[in-house]
Design a protein that fits this description.
Shape: elongated
Distance between the termini: 11 Å
Oligomer: single chain
Strand content: 5-15%
Structural class: alpha+beta
Number of strands: 11
Largest sheet: 5 strands, antiparallel
């Protein structure tokens, strides 16, 4: 592989106009495709195989034309202090608002609070339930404007009016912190390279790669049903890895220049060595992201595949466009250790240079490996303690900022009707196989009423055939409560007994039940997913490092960093530590997909540093250095770059903490803290400590396995015999044959 990439790097350097033109053309095509693509339709959400989804599908079949997936809104009214909603003036205002809402072209029904008994016991709060023909993502702006106008008219009449439900869904905003993250990345690159030109190359190529990836997603969004979160995730990961991969190759290029090589030869060797590490690091990220498909949740699969595509683009750009741009830059990119005149270069050195920080740190770890190992493991273990209190769920209106009308409506309903009113359960009774459908439905209602935690059970609503009914159950706890989850399981257990007695099937659905099933499906898939991703990456790393213990150590270190990162997420978003600093207005359960998502993404990103750092150690060991000295050499050449890459990735991920969407905010924080733990504690401390303790045993590989593994030559051993001055046409012909 190193030889092929070496030739590819030299070819891209020499044929720079052609290489740059290809990527600019791809960016243009993707941009045109995104601009000309039809507006994306609603992003569907389904959880195949769950009871909540089966009930939803049954409703679509037995209650045709009712728009089971249509948007809903709850217009909540509160009377002024000392008044009641049943007062004549207030009642007239509500009826006027209901009449306005009912005139909407996309509205299927509006329930009058006074006829539907939707007034609180103390008379202070009432609500009108609005149902629409289409989902919240499909609603026309005119329908949303009408909803907001009706609410404002109620406010003008003296009532407090707020709107909840999914009819007013807004596109999440990331805020200015995303740009701040990119600015921090630029500063780190300038400090690392000591050159504005060298620092600009990784940023430029990363932005081009993300531009192609996100534009392609936008172009395909309508056809493939891709939601807005998909492009946000692709942008987040694409920026981080795109900058890092380019950083690795530019850094190696400068090191090759420092050894006296010509620029074309240096570009070839940089791509042949650091490029090999980039390829395998990218493969681990792609494996982890594509592996999300094993969960069998379409939304998660699409997010993973789209992000994996963006990572693949980042790898290809690093291998081809970076050497092309290095050809354009010429002498403006200085050898390692030199700075541009603008940043203080060209001054006479006052004293001999001392060993860099990476060398000094690695030497210390090699001398005190056990102490460093214990300190790192204990520190991460302490950070992971909060993860033992992990509670999973999905965000609802109760997790929205208090400044939103959805959150204020949620609070008004909780105060007026109880916390469970915001998460009603829909019990669907399929009595088609029952001898007496009505008796079966009555039995279900009676049994559910007797269950602990039930406040209200509404009368059954039958379909036209009379063989299927829906019953709404109001719990006494909020939707994200563990007690609400227990109630769902209790109803399902009771449904099993009823089916045995009457033949009628009982299914529980609704947003609350859907969230519970979603969380359970993710939990069930976590162990198989972890085994698949870590197993495949373990095999890949055996091929890369030709060792059994090094990949094992890499996997165990990753588990430590992920558990510590989950602990930090729980501490901030569930316990409320530093929540004000992070802009978390409401603590609660951790998003259900967070554990499995962090396992996938963090594992792939963690292997970036593992591959790049340990590959330099392996390279030094293969070239004859002793194990301890190889560790120091690896840190001498790689620590500065890995540190810069980690700081950049942390800055990029932290930029998404400013998002208005709680899911994006949590993902940004979780990935940022995970990279911090993995890069600075696991890879920079625990890894060299373990390697120092193992010595030569770290590179042990059974002879039979060594003979059966392909030689991918990540260390660039095959480049030692290559003549950098061979004719250009020989390279062209060789590459054409490959």
């Amino acid at each position: 592989m190193a030889t092929f990439l070496y030739k590819l790097g030299r070819l891209a350097f020499r044929r720079r106009h052609f290489a740059a033109l290809i990527w600019v053309a791809l960016l243009t095509l993707a941009g045109v495709g995104a601009a000309s693509a039809p507006a994306p339709g609603p992003s569907s959400f389904s959880i195949p195989g769950t009871e909540a989804q089966k009930a939803f599908d049954l409703l679509e079949n037995r209650f045709p034309g009712t728009s089971a997936d249509g948007a809903t809104a709850r217009v909540v009214f509160k009377a002024p202090s000392g008044e009641k909603m049943t007062d004549k003036a207030n009642k007239a205002t509500v009826k006027k608002t209901v009449k306005e809402l009912a005139s909407g072209s996309e509205v299927t029904s509006v329930a009058d609070p006074f006829k539907a008994k939707a007034v609180s016991k103390d008379g202070s709060v009432a609500y009108a339930a609005v149902k629409y023909k289409v989902s919240g993502m499909e609603l026309k702006d005119s329908s949303k404007d009408a909803l907001e106008t009706a609410a404002q008219d109620g406010r003008d009449a003296g009532l407090t009016v707020e709107v909840g439900g999914d009819a007013l869904q807004a596109t999440p905003e990331t805020g200015s912190t995303e740009i701040i993250g990119i600015a921090i990345a630029a500063v780190v690159l300038v400090i690392t390279f000591g050159s504005l030109i060298a620092a600009g190359l990784p940023l430029l190529t990363a932005l081009i790669g993300v531009g192609i990836g996100v534009s392609t997603i936008a172009a395909l969004a309508n056809a493939l049903d891709l939601g807005t979160t998909t492009s946000t995730l692709a942008m987040m990961i694409g920026l981080a890895v795109g900058i890092d991969y380019a950083l690795f190759i530019v850094s190696r290029y400068r090191a090759e220049l420092a050894e006296g090589r010509e620029r074309e030869e240096a570009a070839g060797r940089a791509v042949g060595t650091a490029g090999s590490a980039v390829v395998f690091a990218g493969l681990t990220v792609v494996i982890a992201l594509v592996g999300l498909s094993v969960v069998n949740i379409p939304m998660l699969t699409k997010m993973g595949v789209a992000a994996a595509g963006t990572v693949a683009i980042a790898v290809l750009i690093a291998l081809t466009m970076i050497p092309a741009l290095l050809g354009y830059a010429g002498g403006k990119v200085q050898p390692a250790g030199k700075k541009s005149r603008l940043l203080g270069g060209g001054r006479a050195a006052k004293k001999a240079p001392r060993p860099n920080m990476g060398t000094r740190w690695a030497s210390f770890v090699v001398r005190r490996p056990l102490a460093v190992l214990l300190l790192g493991v204990v520190g991460l273990g302490a950070a992971a303690v909060p993860a033992t209190s992990l509670e999973l769920g999905l965000p609802d209106d109760g997790s929205q900022p208090t400044s939103t009308t959805q959150r204020r409506a949620y609070d008004l309903l909780s105060d007026g009707f109880g916390p469970g009113f915001n998460g009603p359960l829909m019990v669907v009774v399929d009595a088609r196989s029952s001898d007496s459908p009505k008796s079966a439905v009555d039995e279900v209602s009676d049994k559910v009423k007797d269950l602990k935690g039930v406040v209200t059970v509404t009368p059954a609503a039958y379909n036209k055939a009379g063989d299927t009914a829906t019953i709404t159950v109001i719990p006494d706890t909020k939707p994200s409560s563990v007690r609400t989850e227990d109630l769902v399981h209790s109803i399902r257990d009771a449904g099993g007994e009823i089916k045995a007695d009457t033949g009628a099937g009982v299914l529980v659905t609704g947003s609350t039940a859907m969230n519970i099933d979603f969380s359970q499906k993710l939990n069930d898939a976590l162990v198989p997913y972890l085994a698949l991703v870590v197993g495949l990456a373990f095999l890949l790393l055996i091929v890369v490092f030709r060792s059994v213990l090094v990949p094992l150590k890499a996997a165990l270190g990753f588990l430590l960093s992920v558990m510590a990162a989950l602990g930090a997420v729980v501490a901030v978003f569930q316990w409320g530590w530093l929540s004000g600093l992070m802009g978390v207005e409401e603590t609660g359960p951790i998003m259900s997909m967070m554990p499995i998502f962090m396992v996938g993404v963090v594992f792939g990103l963690a292997m970036d540093y593992e591959v790049f750092l340990v590959t330099r150690m392996r390279e030094a060991f293969v070239h004859g250095e002793k194990p301890g000295q190889a560790i120091v050499t690896g840190f001498k050449h790689g620590a500065r770059v890995v540190t810069a890459a980690a700081v950049i990735m942390i800055a990029v991920f932290s930029g998404f903490i400013g998002s208005s969407e709680s899911m994006i905010k949590m993902i940004g924080f979780g990935l940022a803290i995970a990279v911090f733990f993995d890069a600075f504690i696991v890879r920079m401390a625990i890894v060299p400590a373990v390697l120092a303790l193992l010595g030569k045993r770290a590179w042990w590989l059974p002879k039979w396995l060594d003979r059966s593994l392909p030689n991918v030559d990540v260390e660039g051993e095959g480049l030692r015999g290559l003549d950098g001055g061979r004719r250009d046409e020989d390279d062209d012909r060789a590459l054409a044959r490959v």
